[in-house]
Amino acid sequence: MLERLDEVPWAELTHAYGSAADVPEQIRALGSPDPAVRKQAYHDSYGNIFHQGTRYQATAFAVPFLIELLADPSTPDRAGLLDLLAALAVSYDESLLPHPFPIADLRRRAAGGEAVLAGKPLPTGEEDDSGDYEYQDSLEEDDQERMYAYIDLCAYQAVQAGVPLYRQLLADPDPAVRTAAAYAVAWFPEDAAGSIGPLTVAATDPSDTVAASALVALGLLGAADAGSPAALRAAVAGARELPRWGAAVALAALHGPDTEPAAVAELHTWAAGDHRARRGIPYLEGDLSGYAALALRQLGDAHAGTAFDTLLTRIPSVDGPAAMPVVKEALRHAFPAGRVAAGTRFADLTDRQQRLVRALAASPSTWQWGDFGSFGNFMGMVGGYGLPTTAEDMAAFAAGGRSS
Quick one: 126 exposed, middle or buried, by C-beta within 10 A (0-12, 13-18, 19+)? Predict the structure, then answer.
């Protein structure tokens, strides 16, 4: 295993910190029997070939060896490997859900990127090597976008090559591996024809986490297999809580405004409820309520009013990352035209916009992230609509002030 690892010219490839010469050692360490060694290797891998969601030139070259490790039943923590592979393929899912992976769009944006990447200088291996950044800064914006999209596409396609293995792992003895396999398979719509059957079987898995993850995957892949609709209807009407959630999310993705009432009711229950993140559910890091709030978007205009009411109900009980999808959807409902003009008065807002402003003003905890205090990402999201970026300023705005 990994016998060809050293044949890759790692020193000529780059990751977040320059030369990728350290990647082979990290890949080998991912298969170590020592948990401490593996933990450090995962930390290093997420830091260099997946730095804050960005993929690099070395990323696609590392993937085949990760798949090789995954294929060996003796490799420890294969669920962690599957999670890493999924991340390398699609980055953070919060930027995608509730929609499937837009592979056609990525292929379009990547056109011409290979030639741009070919012009990049080789890394020197020196710690202060700035050639990579200087080359990127020298490019026109369109060429930068093509190159980055091409790098992302290479990583995605490298992970895609392992789809047959991920399908096999849907029947692995370890439920954590089965769950991670369902999540991984969900992001490859071009392979849906061969994935829907195994996922439909997994949707009845005795593990609630596996079943729920497989059900969501069926929705993301646009399940058209003859057995899938029956599995989804059975799950949404069943007694198992997590599979009901997964089936409701999937049915909204598949049927949109025509989603059956039982699934619609399930989504409203989850979106309005005070549910903590569920360990083991990979989507949105286990934020089931947040995903339900995103899924309400797919129900269409007929449900827009009740969906908005549900989101407002949820706002006081969320903070930190859990507040992002809820308030993001509420903002999308209330401000469909986007950013308000500078100097907009509270009285100029529509009734729905005023209700949201009041809800945010009355929920200062929603702007926080536990003990960390103010949550910059949340403030930036709200500010992107031209609205005040603190609860105090929002309260002043709601009392008759003007937008900035």
Answer: exposed
Q: How many domains does the chain have?
A: 2
Q: Angle, to 10 degrees, between the axis of helix 208-220 and the axis of helix 228-236?
A: 130
Domain hosting 365: range is: 301-398
At residue 225, does pLDDT exceed 70?
no
How far apart are alpha carbons 263 and 362 in whole angstroms? 31
Of the listed ranges 147-151, 179-183, 188-192, 318-322, the one predicted with least confidence: 318-322
Backbone angles phi, psi at 77, to 5 degrees: 55, 55
Q: Quick one: pLDDT at residue 377? A: 87
pLDDT of residue 271: 85
Query: Where is the domain boundary, 127, 161, 195?
Result: 161
In the predicted structure, residue 114 carries a pLDDT above the cut 70: yes
Does the residue 48 lie in any domain?
yes
Q: What is the pLDDT of residue 300?
A: 87
Q: What angle do CA 161, 163, 169 make, to 5 degrees?
A: 135
pLDDT tens readout for residues 69-107: 999 999 999 999 999 999 999 999 988 999 999 999 999
154, 6: one domain: yes
> What are the residues whose beta carbons fall under 8 Å from the beta carbon of 312, sequence distance 6 or more?
330, 355, 356, 359
Residue 292 inside a domain? The answer is no
Single residue among 139, 161, 183 that ends a domain in this structure: 161
Question: Which residue in the block uniquely carries the two structure tokens 């954590």?
Answer: 176
- In a domain, residue 311? The reply is yes
CA distance 161 to 157: 6
Check: CB of residue 370 under 8 Å from CB of residue 320: yes
Ranges of H-type helices in 228-362: 228-236, 241-255, 261-272, 288-296, 304-314, 323-334, 351-361
Q: What is the DSSP string of 60-74?
A: HHHHHHHHHHHH-TT
* Spatial separation of the C-alpha atoms in residues 188 and 50, rounded to whole Å: 19
State yes or no: pLDDT of 372 exceeds 80: no
Rounded distance between C-alpha atoms, residue 277 and residue 290, angstroms? 9
Mean pLDDT, the chain, whole residue set:
92
Write down the pTM of the prediction.
Answer: 0.87
In a domain, 218, yes or no: no
Going along 48-126, which residue ranges are E strands? 50-51, 54-55
CA gap 31, 21 in Å, rounded: 18
